[in-house]
Amino acid sequence: MKEKILITGFNGEIGSKTLKELVKRGKSVIAMDISDAKVKIDSVSYINDSILNFELITQIFENNNITEVYHFAALLSQTAYRNPELAHDINEKASRNLIDCAYLHGANNHKLIKFFFPSSIAVYGPRKIDNASEQDIIQPTTVYGNNKLIIEQYGSKVHEKSMSENKGIDFRSIRFPGVVSYDTIPSGGTTDYVPQMIDSAKNTKKFDCKLSPETILPFIGINKTISSIIDIMDLESINSKLRVFNVQEVSFSAKKLSDFLIEKFPSFEITFKEDKNFQSVADTWPSSLNCDKANKYWNFNSEKNFESFMKDMISK
Ligand code: AKB
User: Fold this and answer.
1) Angle at the Cα of 46 (from 169 to 63), degrees rounded to 5?
2) Minimal CA–CA distance to 304: which of 292, 316, 313, 294?
3) Mutate to test the pocket of ligand 1, among 13, 72, 77 (most ligand atoms within 8 A of CB)
4) pTM of the complete model
5) Is the pLDDT of residue 145 over 80?
6) Helix (H/G/I), strand (E/B), else coil: 140
7) Which are the contacts of 2, defined by CB distance < 8 A and separation ≥ 6?
8) Where would I find the beta strands (DSSP E) of the chain?
9) How far is CA 227 from the centre of its chain?
10) Is the model's pLDDT at 40 over the cut of 90?
11) Could you tell me if 170 and 162 are in contact, meaning their C-beta atoms sit under 8 angstroms apart?
12) What's the gap in Å between 166 CA and the centre of ligand 1?
């Protein structure tokens, strides 16, 4: 049977670009999302359904030769805060189910299925730290952070079991900071003020920033996000018990961003109105991440400084 890759949440910011990249590399993809594809690629098999349809997920594995899974379907931090039960179902229950199905598929077919899970800086807390490394204090204070941590740990546990049996899943995960795209303006996340502020400045719209000017968070551009996913999944194996790796390109405060945008777009108007649901979350997330492990395993590095990072984002 032909080898297939399964992507969930393919319509999202990261899912849509990962899908395109895999197709470009000649991969045969089954793409699943609750909402239908805006533009369809001929070679892709689309499934328009919920990740909570467990029967369907079982069938996908039964009827196909799946070799890799990219699991992007999720509720982001602010949406999860407003819908904790749904977040538990989508972010945790459905993720566990997908890991279990992939494990069974691998075990039954005596092979290892590569499984990619996008985690987040939301697993950190309860205090803001600088240069956070993978093992630093991990006590998330949010629903979303807890969901992500539980799946990091569950995936790593199933990975270990799989390694001891030499069949099942090969779990790989990246802890993403805020992701900044030049062509999508996401909402639902705590870090989405960055793409939203850039869009407002470019289109001369007023912007109300929900974080204090001093708040510093780490970020990565969408191109580096996608290349990191492709690079970690391209590795034949990762000789490490640690399955989750930090990546970032730059860290900056909300004020540094607004100053830069006002200089480039002098008519841009911004106000800072702290919203406690956003501020209390950002205050527990690291201001920067240590990426030594990603550098060690797949040569992850970033030559970006704030100016070159922002220039890329506003020029597109
Ligand atoms: C969010 O804010 O929900 C995400 C993240 C950093 O995980 N962008």
Assistant:
1) 50
2) 313
3) 77
4) 0.96
5) yes
6) coil
7) 28, 65
8) 3-8, 29-33, 45-48, 65-71, 112-120, 168-176, 178-180, 207-209, 216-221, 244-246, 250-253, 270-272
9) 13
10) yes
11) yes
12) 34
